[in-house]
From TrEMBL:
Highest taxon listed in the record's lineage: Bacteria
Protein name, per record: Cation acetate symporter
PROSITE patterns linked to this entry: NA_SOLUT_SYMP_3
InterPro entries: Na/Glc_symporter_sf, Na/solute_symporter, Sodium:Solute_Symporter
The species this protein was found in: Planomonospora corallina
Length: 576
């Protein structure tokens, strides 16, 4: 990739975000502007903004990278992330808007009349937000390092600063304009290069992954490793090495790599002959092309992992704080439902594209399976297939889309986390919101710098599992079950959310674990979601005396259309 073009693309996206955010500052004057844009956002504008913030680094880079490595099993991610909006449309969107709340903790307190539930919900919002922000910053570092060779932390710092400036300037009203613009940037940045990639693929004879062996180098290939990695070699192969291999330094030394694991230092160059099998990074499966193309072939205990992934993505969407806060910005419940329908169309159009990048990457960029940087396949393909100035321009466009993904998703998450910190930890109001914004970006930035890098879609998938295990049952039971109590809610949040958080932390800190224990921890939704629902229901039935006194009035408010609802007062946050 041409460094100048890539940097120019990043600068254009960053400047556009700052300038559009500055325009929002002119319109943001009240607390309601900062938290929910005064509830005046139209369905199309709001749907574009939702698409902008929902299509994160996991969607733009991560899905393609996981499809490159794992194949057909990963197609459930875009299906689940889109289908989750159907559940949201049917069960949550309109009643949530009618609640008049500003944040999820606001809703929890209004429905259950309990400060304890509110505080527990606040902690979970912050944890989910930080867990979701961390891979955005890590991916920004990956992209900036790919185009300029900058340190891994530089991209995260850049995104954090721009997001903080935008949110501090105008809150929700400001980032609504930014995110709507960035959705269309992301869609264009994936769709336009795909046209040229498919043309180049057809000219090349339309090759397809096929065979009973893992990918091999089609020609003599030099692979440069950007970060330390351990790779597995399946058969002896003669290579030329410059750099550190297995603890020893080499300078253009011809070596034979024996079968087994080998440690490769950062900056090392290894040249493979044509036809050599691609060594795989230790954490990636060495799948044959046949296994890659078939479902339920890529992981241990694939049936459990697949169903757990489906449950997390379908139910986790309704528990993501940066998604739910968008429905508070609609004028009424009808507009909230219409917004959800438009979102389904926008997401469906976008998610057709990453799978194409993943499949083409399997053919043309198999070395990413060795370096472990499969998330970079979207950035690498245009230069590999098209080449020349056209390839550089397409790579710059993809880079612009990637930074738009980081900025838009990080902005929405920051507003959600800052809103909760500002209301429930600080004193409320605009000044507290601005202090909370700094805290909201500083902590995940520090974690992204210190933590080991995981595939971005994996980390986001874990955030979905936590959301599905905590806020999904809270919202569904809170909206549709009159006998729901604060004791049941608190017990379920602690049980489901706590168990899912424990599984997530074990996976991130402890690394991959073998056998059933590893499968259960890596994909906890299949057991943590039923536990949360069961605990909430059982404890609520055992504590009938704790049903909120105002439940009848609250349920009428949630389920009566605005045109008939005589109780239209909004639930105001402290300090409003």
């Amino acid at each position: 990739m041409n460094t100048a073009y890539g940097l120019a693309a990043v600068v254009v996206v960053v400047l556009a975000a700052v300038l559009i955010g500055a325009f929002g500052l002119r319109l943001s004057r009240t607390t309601s502007d900062f938290y929910v844009a005064s509830r005046t956002v139209s369905p199309l504008w709001n749907a574009s903004a939702i698409g902008g913030e929902y299509l994160s680094a996991a969607s733009f880079l991560g899905i393609a990278g996981l499809i490159l490595a794992y194949g057909a099993d990963m197609l459930w991610l875009p299906v689940g992330w889109t289908g989750g909006y159907l559940v949201l449309l049917v069960l949550v969107s309109a009643p949530l808007r009618r609640s008049g709340a500003y944040t999820l903790p606001d809703f929890a307190e209004a429905r259950l009349e309990s400060m304890a539930v509110r505080r527990c919900a606040s902690v979970l919002v912050v944890l989910i937000g930080w867990l979701y922000l961390m891979p955005q910053f890590q991916s920004a570092g990956l992209v900036l390092r790919t185009i300029t060779g900058a340190p891994a932390w530089a991209g995260g710092v850049l995104v954090a600063v721009v997001v903080a400036v935008n949110v501090l300037s105008g809150g929700m009203r400001s980032i609504t304009f930014v995110q709507a613009f960035q959705y269309w940037i992301k869609l264009t940045a994936l769709a336009l290069p795909v046209v040229f990639l498919l043309l180049a693929w057809r000219v090349d004879g339309a090759p397809a992954p096929a065979g009973e062996t893992p990918p091999a180098f089609a020609e003599r290939t030099t692979v440069t490793v950007a970060a330390d990695v351990t790779v597995r070699v399946d058969a002896p192969v003669r290579v030329t090495v410059t750099g550190r291999l297995d603890g020893s330094s080499h300078d253009r030394a011809p070596l034979t790599l024996a079968p087994g694991p080998h440690t490769v230092g950062h900056g090392t160059e290894i040249t493979f002959p044509a036809g050599a099998s691609v060594p795989h990074a230790e954490h990636l499966p060495a799948l044959s092309d046949r296994q890659w193309a078939l479902p339920l072939e890529s992981r241990d205990h694939p049936l459990y992992a697949t169903y757990s992934l489906i449950l997390a993505t379908f139910l986790g969407t309704m528990g993501l704080p940066h998604v739910l806060v968008r429905f508070y910005t609609n004028p009424d419940g009808r507009a909230a439902r219409r917004t959800t329908l438009v979102v389904l169309s926008l997401l469906g159009a976008f998610y057709l594209l990453p799978a194409i990048y993943g499949a083409l990457g399997r053919i043309y960029t198999p070395e990413l399976l060795m370096t472990g940087r499969t998330d970079a396949v979207v950035l690498t393909l245009p230069g590999r297939l098209v080449g020349g100035t056209a390839g550089d321009l397409l790579s710059a466009l993809v880079t612009a889309g990637a930074f738009a993904a980081f900025l838009s998703t990080s902005s929405g998450l920051t507003v959600s986390v800052a809103g909760v910190i500002g209301q429930d930890i600080l004193r409320g109001g605009v000044s507290s919101f601005r202090v909370a914004t700094v805290l909201a970006v500083a902590v995940p930035l520090a974690l992204a710098t210190a933590a080991r890098a995981l595939p971005v879609a994996d980390v986001v998938g874990l955030a979905f599992a936590v959301a599905a295990s905590s806020f999904c049952p809270l919202l569904v039971l809170g909206i549709w079950w009159r006998r729901f109590t604060d004791a049941g809610a608190l017990a379920g949040l602690l049980a489901g959310g706590g168990l899912a958080c424990a599984a997530v932390l074990t996976t991130i800190i402890g690394g991959p674990i073998e056998g059933w224990a590893g499968a259960l921890l890596a994909q906890p939704a299949a057991w943590s979601v039923p536990v949360a629902f069961l605990v909430m229901a059982v404890v609520s039935l055992l504590t009938p005396g704790r049903v909120p006194k105002g439940v009848a009035r609250t349920m009428v408010r949630l389920h009566t259309p605005e045109t008939l609802n005589v109780d239209r007062g909004d639930w105001r946050p402290r300090g409003a």
